[in-house]
Amino acid sequence: NQASVFNGAARIYAPRYRQAHMNVYYETAEKESAKQAFELAYRDVKRAFDHYLRHQNNGRPIIIASHSQGTNHTERLLKEYFDGMPLQKQLVAAYLVGMPIRTDAFKSLPACETPEQTGCFCTWNAYAKDHYPKKWEKDLKYSVATNPLNWQIDSTYASREENLGGVYTKFNFKPKFSDAEVKDGMVWIGTPNIFGASLLRVKRWHYAEYNLFYFNIRQNAKVRADAFVNKKDSI
Question: How far apart are CA 30 and CA 41, in angstroms?
């Protein structure tokens, strides 16, 4: 449902890591234990990336993609390996999905503003239209939001007619799965194109943030990869 979206543009390398328990995100978690759990998980991700650089990359362009807790680790990875570093020259784009990424998160990596821009990052957190979650004031309010249908970071609305299709349970294709609109650091969506959707009371579409826009993301990864290669060839 997630990593496979990129196999039309690139080889897939996924780190096997010891993920921190979901409880680390709650205020009731013991802070030092939560910090240690995140550190353990990140060390695994970092070792996997080091292995990839030593044995598989061979100087090729890189797409970085993540979701949820993976985005927390990937934000740190980008700061340590790409942001203002020589490796930034190999970055096609980073897709940082499912966690807030603040507008000032990076020193040298800008937010992508066009569908073909490279060396930049895209990020979104999907919520039902008109919904402001409790954590909005804390972090989403200050976050970048990319519309995964038109790849803009302004409030330009994208109707479901612009959605090339998503994937539902059992990887079923769903045409015109959802619309999308950037609003106050979030991506708002209307009622998805699935049976019984009118009865749903879902406010946070976290688990479907790749599924809803699957074929737009797939197309965009190819567009950015082609733009990166063409730009490199013209130098």
Answer: 17
Is the pTM of the predicted complex or chain greater than 0.85?
yes
Q: What was the pLDDT predicted at 53?
A: 98
* CB neighbour list of residue 229: distance below 8 Å, 6 or more residues apart: 61
Burial of 108-145, coded b for 16+ CB within 10 Å and e otherwise, reads ebebbeeeebbbbbbbbbbbbeeeeeeebeeebebbbb
pLDDT at 218 over 90: yes
DSSP string of 194-220, one letter each residue = STTGGG----B-GGGTTGGGHHHHHHH
The arithmetic mean of pLDDT across residues 22-45, rounded, is 92
Residue with tokens 């045409």: 175
- Which pLDDT value is given to residue 45? 98
59-90 tens-digit pLDDT: 999 999 999 999 999 999 999 999 999 999 99
> Which ranges of the chain would DSSP assign to H, the alpha helix?
31-52, 69-81, 214-234
The whole-number pLDDT of residue 60 equals: 97
Is residue 2 left, alpha or beta, with left meaning phi > 0 and alpha meaning psi from -120 to 50? Answer: alpha
Cβ neighbours, 10 Å, residue 81: 18
Q: Give 166's DSSP letter.
A: E
Q: What are phi and psi of 219, to 5 degrees?
A: -65, -45
77 close to 49: Cβ distance less than 8 angstroms: yes
In terms of residues, how long is the chain? 235
